[in-house]
Every structure is written in C-alpha cells, then in structure tokens.
TrEMBL record:
Gene3D superfamilies, A to Z: Glucose-6-phosphate isomerase like protein, domain 1
Residues covered by the SIS domain: 30-170, 196-336
Pfam family, one: SIS
Protein name: Glucosamine--fructose-6-phosphate aminotransferase (Isomerizing)
Keyword Kinase: no
Keyword annotations from UniProtKB, A to Z: Aminotransferase, Repeat, Transferase
SUPFAM superfamilies: SIS domain (SSF53697)
Recorded GO MF terms: glutamine-fructose-6-phosphate transaminase (isomerizing) activity
EC number(s) from the headed UniProt entry: 2.6.1.16
Domain of life, source organism: Bacteria
Organism the protein comes from: Actinomadura algeriensis
Length: 346
C-alpha cells in the first residue's frame, strides 16, 4: 500500500506550481519592506529551520544582505528586548500555529523589525501576525514528515529572494515543477535507489553533508532519516565535517553527500566523497552531476537547475530514499513515534 508520505511527495510538482504562481506577484510587497531594511532575521524550528538555512544562503550569496538565524528563546524565555530597526524578520512555520514562532515574530515587530511570514496555514495566527504573509499552496499534508510543505516553503523563500533583489532568473523558478516531476520518476527508476536503501538498512547511523546553498538540504535529509527511520544521522557542512567529525565516517557509518550540479561547493563535495571512500566508507551522492556520481559508491540524480534554486529539487530524491528506507526497516513513515504534525515548544 502506498504511504501518505509517498503520495504527498508525488504531489510536489503541482504544489510547487500553485505556490510559485500565487507568490511571484508578491515580490513588489516584499521589495517595499526591503527598502526599509538592511538584513534578514529568520525565525523557525525543525524542518522550517532547515528551509531558513536555504533562505539565509540565498539572500547572502545572491541578494547581498546579511541573513541570520533567530534564537526564539531570547524572545520567549529570556524576554530580552533587542534593537531590530532595519531588520526584516521572516518567520517560517508549516502550520502557522506554533506559538513560539508566532510570539517571536510579535517580539521582533515590537523591537522595530518589519515582518514577513511563510506558512501553509492561511488565516493562521502566524499569517495574521505578519505585514506580508507568503501563503504556500501545498494543500493538506497528513504524513508527519514534511515533504510538500517543505519544498513549497523553499519556493516562498525563493520569491523572498527575488523581492530582495537577488541576481537570479525568475524563469529558473518557473521550470522547477516540471523538473521535480521528472526527478521523481528518474529517482524511482534508478538502480542506485534499492542498493542505497539495502546498504543503509544495515547500519545504525550516517553523516549527511553539503555546503552553502545545499547545506539546508543536508540538514533536512538528516532530520528525515532520524525521524522516519530512527537512525543516528548528523547533518553537517562539509567544512565542519573536516574539522573533526570526519573521524566517525567508516565502513559502518556511510556519508550521504548532497550538491547542486554546478557551483563553487561542488569540487569540495567531490573531494569529500573521494576521501570517505579512501577511508573505507561508502559514499552516496544526491545530485552533483556526473562528477559526484563518479566519486561515490552510488548516487541518485539531482535536478538540472542552477545552484540558487537546486535545493527545491535536491531534497526530493532524499525524501524518496527515506520513504523507501523506512518501509524496508518495517517502520510506517507516516507516523514516526513520538511526533505530531504541529510541535509546540516553550
């Protein structure tokens, strides 16, 4: 029987198309707020925080603005006022109902920030709290692991980048839905998929690594492996990995490496795959083109997209891998133990 997770990840091309069509007209609203701000503060938890990592690299590398992650505890626990004049606060929550995220956005506004929300919850408290609400069009998501709500968040952040003046081509974003549709088909037909699933089923943990624009993808893939497959997975920048944690990569702890098919971080990702294999560890690639595939033990295809928008497709083979691995391990990927669709933190 098809899992809800598999059904919902298959809905991503349509969800992305709806979201892009709905949000691209909002770039003027974003630009108006951007004219009064200098830097971007991202407020999020969980998968939304991984989406925020993409947003940060996008606005810094392509829009020339400082992007920083917020510490919600400063607002909700320490209750410390900070001067946020000149800051654009961007709060991200799939449901728009996580009280901590709503409270932190209200706090940011009270500290002088202009505010944007990214949520799939039209009419939610988070949508109502922001000056500009970017409502994604994922539709209802029933499986606990986020798939289409995550990728549509990335689409909303891509639109945010355009509104902030990123030097990127809107057409790259518009061709994303068709690229994802083809990527789902190519991944499920890839002979590497059952091989990687079978080999990961025999280990207790893995290291997931990427850098720059792909860093958020590595974090999200590691989170999905932990929550849906119950494996110990570390999500790391490959720069951080080389500073010490590389020691854990061995025959029983493989490396999963994610990269766009082009860009300045690709050579380092290929070098990391080669180093892992020379140490006797399996290295599995996601994306990275022919170069990464040749350096890895096995590799899944990535999207044929420029680096700036590649993460919107790059996570999809990872989602498929996780769904297949969970079922191989006898786990229902739709309802991981101990998790709910909306998580409240204090």
């Amino acid at each position: 029987m098809t899992s809800l997770m598999r059904a919902e990840l298959g809905q991503q091309p349509d969800a992305l198309r709806r979201t892009i069509d709905a949000l691209l007209p909002r770039t003027a609203d974003i630009a108006k707020l951007a004219a009064e701000t200098r830097q971007v503060l991202f407020i999020a938890r969980g998968s939304s925080d991984n989406a925020a990592a993409y947003g940060r690299y996008l606005v810094e590398s392509r829009a020339g603005r400082l992007g920083t992650p917020a510490a919600p505890s400063i607002a909700t626990t320490y209750r410390r006022k900070i001067d946020l004049s000149g800051v654009l606060a961007v709060a991200i929550s799939q449901s728009g109902k996580t009280e901590e995220i709503v409270e932190t956005l209200d706090w940011a506004a009270g500290c002088g920030a202009r505010t944007v929300s990214v949520t799939n919850g039209a009419g939610s408290p988070l949508a109502e709290a922001a000056e500009v609400a970017l409502i994604t069009q994922a539709g209802e998501e029933k499986a606990v692991p986020a798939t289409k709500t995550y990728t549509t968040q990335l689409a909303a952040l891509s639109v945010l980048g355009l509104g902030l003046g990123a030097d990127v081509a809107e057409d790259d974003l518009r061709r994303l839905p068709d690229e994802v549709a083809g990527l789902i088909e190519a991944t499920e037909a890839s002979p590497a998929l059952p091989r990687i699933v079978e080999e990961l089923a025999g280990v207790t943990g893995a290291v997931v690594s990427g850098r720059g624009i792909a860093f958020g993808t590595a974090l999200e893939l590691a989170l999905k492996i932990k929550e849906a497959c119950y494996l110990h997975a570390m999500g790391l920048s490959y720069a951080d990995l080389l500073h010490g944690p590389i020691a854990v990569v061995d025959a029983k702890t493989p490396a999963l490496l994610v990269a766009a098919d082009s860009g300045p971080t690709l050579p380092g990702t290929i070098a990391l795959a080669e180093r892992a294999r020379s140490a006797g560890a399996p290295a599995y690639g996601v994306g990275g083109g022919d170069g990464l595939a040749a350096a890895c033990s096995a590799a899944l295809p990535g999207p044929g997209l420029p680096e700036w928008v590649a993460p919107l497709g790059l996570i999809v083979p990872g989602q498929i891998l996780v769904e297949n691995l969970a079922r191989r391990l006898g786990i229902d990927p739709d309802v991981p133990r101990g998790l709910n669709k909306v998580t409240q933190t204090t």
